[in-house]
Amino acid sequence: MRSLYIDGAWRDSASSEALDVVNPATEQVIDTVPAGAAEDVDAAVAAAAAALPAWSALTPGQRVTHLAKALELFNARIDDIAAELTRDMGAPAVFARKVQAGLPALMFQTYIDLVEESGERYFGGERVGNSLIVREPVGVVGAITPWNYPLHQIVLKVVPALLAGNTVVLKPSEVAPLSAYALTEVFHEAGLPAGVFNLVSGTGPVVGEAIAAHPRVDMVSFTGSTRAGTRVSQVAAETVKKVALELGGKSPNVILPDADLVKAVKRGVADVMRNTGQSCNALTRMLVHRDSYEEAVALAAESAAKYAPGDPADEATRMGPLVSADQLERVRSYLALGVEEGARLVTGGPEPVRGRPDGYYVNPTVFADVSNDMRVAQEEIFGPVLVLIPYDTEEEAVAIANDTVYGLNAAVWSGDPERGLAVARRLRAGQVEVNGGALNPRAPFGGYKRSGNGREWGAHGLEEFCEVKAVQL
To answer: What residues sit in the active site (predicted)?
Structure first.
C-alpha cells in the first residue's frame, strides 16, 4: 500500500484501512492507497502551518525557482505520468498525453510565467491614492480535487497556491489518486521544503470534511459535484474560512440559423464525447433552430458513432471507459430515464457495449426531441450523452440556454461573429466560446449560480489564493 506525504516525508496513515485503485478498462485492482484519518489531516495541517512563515517570506522569484525545478522533473517523466493516467482513470493514450498530462504541464508553466513577468509588482503592491494595496498569501490551503481531470485540477490549485506563498494540504480523489502521487514524488525530488506540500489520501466524508472543518486551514479550494461542494461550504462555514468552488454544469451550445451547421454540430459532439463525457464544462445541451433541427440530429448521430468505446491503451481509441462502476450505473440510469421521459433515442442507449464484457464502458448517446424541463436536460449526467433541443427564435434560444441552475460554460455559433458575441454576452455562464474559440490558459475559468464561485486559470486563479491588504500612508 502507498503512504501519505506529510512534512517532507512518506509516512504510514493513522488508519489501517486501504482503498483499492481500479483500472476502469479491466476492472482489476492496480494499487492501494491509505484511507486517511482525521489524525492524518491534523499532522499535515500542523506541518503546513509550521512551514508557512519561511515559505511565505521567500520572494516570488525564489518560489518560482523551486516550482520551475519541479516542472522540469515533471516534463521529463510526462509520458510515464500519462500512462499512469490511462491506467488510473481510463483516459485514451493520445488524450492522456495531450490533455490529461499535457494540459497540467501547460498550466504549470503558465503560472510560473505569470509570476516571473509580474510577481514582484503583483505581490509588492500598487499605489491607490494614499494607500498601498498588497496581496499576501491566505495561509494554509486545503485542496480537494476530483477524478475526471485528476492531475489538471491538482495543478490548478497547488501551483498557484504555492507561488502565492501559501502552504498546501491536498486530498486527491480516492477514485483516481495515482497522478497525485506522481506529482508528489516530483515535488519531493525537486527539494520542496518540508511541510510546504502535503498529501493525505482518503474519502470525502473523512479526510475532505476534516480539511474543510480544520480551524488551522485558512482556505479550501474544492472541485467536484455541486452536492459535495455544498457540503464543503457548510462545514467550512463553522470557521469562516475562504472557500472556492468549481462545481457542475449543464452547458448550452447555441447554434444560430446562420452558423456553419456541419462544423458546429461536429465540434459540439466532440466536446461532449471528450473524456467520455466526464467534463464539468461539456456542452451537453445543443440548441438548434427548428428549420435545421432534423439535419442537426442526423449529423450528431453520425458524429457520435465515430466514438466507439475501446481499450484506452490502444493509440487508435478515441473514447475509453467511464471511471468507475458507480459512474457506469449512474450514466446508464440516465439513459433509461431519457427514454422514459419521452426523448427520442437517436443512437446509443443503456445496453452494454458490444465486445466489451469487462470495463466500465457505455455507449455514446444522442437524444432528440428533448424539452428543457426533462431531467436529462437539467441534471448533470457526466457521461457521453448529448441532448438536442429545438428553438424558434433567438430570444427563445437564450431563454432556454439560461434556464438551468448551472452556469459554468456555454457556446454560440454564428456566421456573423458580432451576432455571436452579442448572444454570448447574454448567456449566464463564466466562460462562453464563440465559433469554437480556442482555449486560453490565461483566461479565468469558473461558474455562475450552482456551478460555483471563485476563478481558476491565469492571474485570476493566482489571486484566488491571496488576501488583499490596504496600507494607508
So the answer is: 246
Residue range 252-434 forms a domain whose CATH class is alpha beta
Locate CATH 3.40.309.10 in the chain: 252-434
Q: Where are the alpha helices (DSSP H) in 125-221?
A: 150-163, 178-189, 209-213
Nearest to 390 by CA among 283, 296, 454, 323: 296
Question: Within 10 Å of residue 341's Cβ, how many Cβ atoms?
Answer: 16
CA–CA separation, 6 vs 393, rounded Å? 57
Q: Quick check: 397 and 288 in contact, CB under 8 A?
A: no
**First vs last Cα of the chain: how many Å apart?**
56
C-alpha cell recorded at residue 144: 480537494
**Cell numbers representing residue 407 in the block:** 452556469
What rounded mean pLDDT belongs to the chain?
97
Q: Locate cell 482525521: which residue?
A: 38
Count the Cβ atoms, other than its own, within 10 Å of residue 339.
Answer: 14
- Fold (topology level) of 4-247+452-472: Aldehyde Dehydrogenase; Chain A, domain 1 (3.40.605)
Per-residue confidence (pLDDT) for residue 125, from 0 to 100: 86
CA 14 remoteness from chain centre: 29
The dihedral sign for the CA sequence 388, 390, 393, 397? negative
Residue 167's pLDDT band (cuts 50, 70, 90)? very high
Is the pTM here over 0.90, yes or no? yes
- Cβ atoms 115, 59 nearer than 8 A: no
Instruction: Look at residue 74 in the predicted model and tell me its pLDDT.
Output: 98
CA distance 380 to 375: 9
State the helix-helix crossing angle for 178-189 and 150-163, rounded to 10 degrees.
30
Residues carrying an active site annotation: 246
- Which residues make Cβ contacts (< 8 Å) with residue 323, sequence separation at least 6? 24, 89, 90, 147, 148, 175, 176, 276, 278, 360
Tens-place pLDDT, residues 223-278: 999 999 999 999 999 999 999 999 999 999 999 999 999 999 999 999 999 999 99
- Dihedrals φ, ψ of 74, to 5°? -60, -50
Residues 197/162, Cβ–Cβ less than 8 Å: yes
Backbone φ and ψ for 124, nearest 5 degrees, come out as -75, -20
CA 432-275-148 angle, to 5 degrees, is: 90
**Rounded-to-10 torsion of CA 319, 321, 326, 331:** 30
In sequence order, which residues have a C-beta less than 8 Å from that of residue 59 and are 6 or more positions away?
120
Where are the CATH 3.40.605.10 domain residues in the chain?
A: 4-247+452-472
